[in-house]
Design a protein that fits this description.
The protein is built from four helices and six strands, in the order H-H-H-H-E-E-E-E-E-E. The chain has helices at about 1-10, 70-130, 130-140, 150-165; strands spanning about 165-170, 180-190, 195-205, 205-210, 210-215, 215-225. The strands form two sheets. The chain has a three-stranded antiparallel beta sheet. The protein has a three-stranded mixed beta sheet with strand order 2-6-3, with no helix packed on it.
């Protein structure tokens, strides 16, 4: 009766102390930890579980970080360093992409410019080879031999075709003398002009775009004095 009464008194009054050998103990004998999933080592029945949750086996009440757990501050610092490294790498790749894009744009412009120059040079070569023919056409036109007939049609078609590639004939009497496009073969003076003036076109000039194939050969009259 005394032991039974003592057991009831211990169960009903204030709870049993952990160091009381008569206190009831609960031992979790599951081999797999329900929290971590790790395999537990066998624990003797006479060993009391640590303070805290008897199922998880975690210590409680102290607030201490378990051994081997990552420090929150060090984890945050590592994450910040990784983010900074990623941002630096992204900025470097962006610079590389922008540089490559600029180089490609310059390459395209250079290719387009070279293609245009190559095409213009090809037309220049063709016009230069046809200069004798073009001179004969202009001379026949001045003498009225191309007013009508099949040859007039052929000459007109040839000049029209060359004009599509930028060719044109230039040089006319009465225009100011320009040494960059005129070649003076004859020179005279007169009080009727106020500046050097083309008075006669001996051979017209030819150009393709801004490039002069042959300067106009002219007679020039300059003012007296």
């Amino acid at each position: 009766m005394t032991e039974h009464h003592h057991g009831q008194h211990a169960a009903g009054g204030g709870g049993a102390r952990e160091d009381d050998p008569a206190a009831v103990r609960f031992t979790d004998k599951r081999r797999i930890d329900p929290t971590t999933g790790a395999v537990r080592q066998p624990v003797p029945d006479d060993v009391a579980p640590p303070h805290g949750d008897p199922l998880s086996g975690a210590t409680g009440g102290t607030g201490a970080t378990p051994a081997g757990a990552p420090d929150a501050a060090s984890g945050a610092g590592a994450g910040g360093e990784a983010l900074a490294a990623a941002e630096a790498l992204a900025a470097e790749r962006l610079d590389d992409l922008q540089r490559l894009q600029a180089e490609y744009v310059n390459y395209r412009r250079r290719v387009d410019r070279d293609r245009a120059v190559a095409g213009e040079l090809a037309v220049l070569g063709v016009v230069e080879a046809l200069l004798p023919v073009l001179d004969e056409i202009e001379l026949a036109r001045q003498h009225g031999e191309l007013a009508e007939g099949p040859f007039a049609s052929i000459a007109e078609k040839l000049e029209t075709s060359l004009g599509r590639f930028g060719w044109e004939r230039f040089g006319a009497a009465g225009e100011p003398f320009d040494p960059t496009v005129h070649e003076a073969l004859m020179h005279a003076e007169s009080a009727d002009v106020e500046e050097p003036t083309v008075t006669q076109v001996l051979q017209p000039g030819h150009r393709v775009g801004e490039r002069v194939v042959r300067a106009a050969r002219v007679a020039v009259t300059a003012p007296v004095g």
